[in-house]
Amino acid sequence: MSDNRNAIDTLLILGASGDLTKRLLLPGLATLLGSKKGRPMQLVGAGMEELSDKDWRDRVSTSFKSSGAKGKLLTDTARKSRYFQSDVTDPDQLAKLLGECPGTPAIYFALPPAVTVRVCHALTKIDYPEGTTLVLEKPFGVDEQSAHDLNTLLQSIVPENQIHRVDHFLGHSDVLNILGTRFANTIFEPIWNNQHIDSIEIYFDEDLTLENRAGYYDKAGALVDMIQSHLLQVMGIVMMEPPATLDEGDLRNGKSSVLRATHLFEDAEHSSRRARYTAGTIGTRKVPAYTREPGVDPKRRTETLAEVTLEVRNWRWVGVPVTLRSGKSLGKPRKEVVVNFKPPSHLPVGFAGTDRPAKLVIGMNPTRLVLGMDVNGPGDPFDLDWVELETDLGPGDLEAYGQVLEGVLAGDPTLSVRGDTAEQCWRIIEPVIKAWQADEVPMDTYAAGSQGPRSWATSGRP
After folding, report:
1. Among the listed ranges 212-216, 327-331, 432-436, which one has the minimum average pLDDT value?
2. Does residue 128 sit in the same domain as residue 192?
3. Where residue 458 falls among pLDDT bands split at 50, 70, 90?
4. If you average pLDDT over every residue of the chain, what do you get?
């Protein structure tokens, strides 16, 4: 990993009074401060809401406690934390705020994307400490051109290695387990190619509904919310070439090469599907139809389940369909990478029973590794039985946001999204977005609590 030459002294959170800070950032920071990797730093919050330092410190302490982390460093950080009411889109107020941040600051934009852009324009008009780091949440633009324009703006302020585009998926230990599974085991890497792998599937099916996120989700939908960002990044890790090191340059170059080679498997009409949930039951919960959820505009025709089949057109992967799928309000959560191997070129005559190609499943939540294969079963030694060898990989030391913040505070962008890959992710799905806007792909439906549209289970899609 990168060294600490750009280590951060102050974490400045813009939009500090919002839900993201309370629910994810502060608990994630607490897990970091409570771990062996924690170190002293100044925490500063800023927002339009009027809060006293005491009120802010109480909020910080409450969020820290919700993480379950403990330690003197947490107590000291909360006690010394400060809050400023400020319009950070105003250059003068932003300059004054940065003057209250000792040492080198990391500016965390817990703000709507449009406001983030306005703050960045304000930064171009003021002085700020050398080494200042910018930390942004997705979405990174709304299409390839806007992502490019945002990158141009950000890189006019600081160098690329001081820009952290947060994808908390990349901070999940279960996603990072993909690297160890692939590159530390010679039984996998020699067959990790189109000669031995038939198809790859990456799922993130949730039983969660909107959970009060209609303001964002109804404008984004499953395609943009999950596939355009998180799942394409996971795909990049699964399919990258073996890196020389785990430094940020090698890892991020590897993902970038995969994404540049990625295209729809066929045209958008045959390589994508979408659906939206109707009323149903998840466990004991009765769930209304998506169009009747609070804050949803039915005219938007927002999908809650999206599936896209892609192809990485390079020597290693050409011809292998890669299906990315994500949806909400599904009856059985499924969060995993599935690698389907090709059948053996020849099965000796005389075997009977099960005959299924081997399959490797890397679970993202829960963290597990499952290898399914045919073996000689009990009884007749020539009858094949399907067995699954499974192990629990266990959680990492830090929560996802704690892992992300560790990189931010250490000046290490390894787990952030590089600017060029943010643009490539938009390029890959833009044909799908256009086809869906033109209604070239039907909007299927599924009952909340089901596993998706019935027709999808029998369509024979890769």
Report:
1. 212-216
2. no
3. low
4. 91
Q: Are residues 32 and 102 in the same domain?
A: yes
User: What's the rounded mean pLDDT across residues 145-170?
Assistant: 92
Place of tokens 């149903």: 280
* Catalytic site residue from 121, 164, 230, 263: 230
Are 279 and 386 part of one and the same domain?
A: yes
CB within 8 A of 58, min separation 6: which ones? none
Q: Which residues form the domain of 347?
A: 170-397+418-457
Q: End of a domain among 94, 117, 137?
A: 137
Instruction: Indicate which CATH number applies to the domain containing 57.
Output: 3.40.50.720
pLDDT at position 246, please?
86
- Does a structural domain hold residue 147? no
Tell me: do 127 and 179 sit in the same domain.
no
The SS3 call for residue 178 is helix
Return the pLDDT at 340. Answer: 97
The DSSP string of 243-303 is: PSSSSHHHHHHHHHHHHHTEEESS-HHHHEEEEEEESEEETTEEE--GGGSTT--GGG---
All residues at 6 or more sequence positions from 62 whose CB lies less than 8 Å from its CB, including other chains: none
336 in the same domain as 430: yes
Residues 345 and 222 in one domain: yes
DSSP character for 229? I
Residue 410 within a domain = no
SS3 assignment, position 381: coil
Q: What is the pLDDT of residues 397-436, one digit of tens each?
A: 778 888 889 999 998 888 889 999 999 999 999 999 999 9
Q: How confident is the model at residue 1 (pLDDT cuts 50, 70, 90)?
A: very low
Supply the CATH number for residue 245's domain. Answer: 3.30.360.10
Pairing of strands 105-109, 197-205: unpaired
230 is catalytic: yes
**pLDDT tens, 177-198?**
888 888 999 999 999 999 999 9
Q: What does 111-148 look like in DSSP terms, one character per residue?
A: S-HHHHHHHHHHHTTS---TT-EEEEESP--SSHHHHH
pTM for the whole structure: 0.91
- Check whether residue 125 and residue 211 sit in a common domain: no
Residue 273 has pLDDT above 80, yes or no: yes
Check: CB of residue 138 under 8 Å from CB of residue 167: yes
Query: Is position 413 within any domain?
Result: no
d(CA 364, CA 335): 5
Asked whether residue 103 falls in the same domain as residue 190, the answer is no
d(CA 405, CA 411): 10
Q: How many domains does the chain have?
A: 2
- DSSP for 152-164, please give it: HHHHTTS-GGGEE
Residue located via tokens 């890892």: 251
Query: Does some domain include residue 404?
Result: no
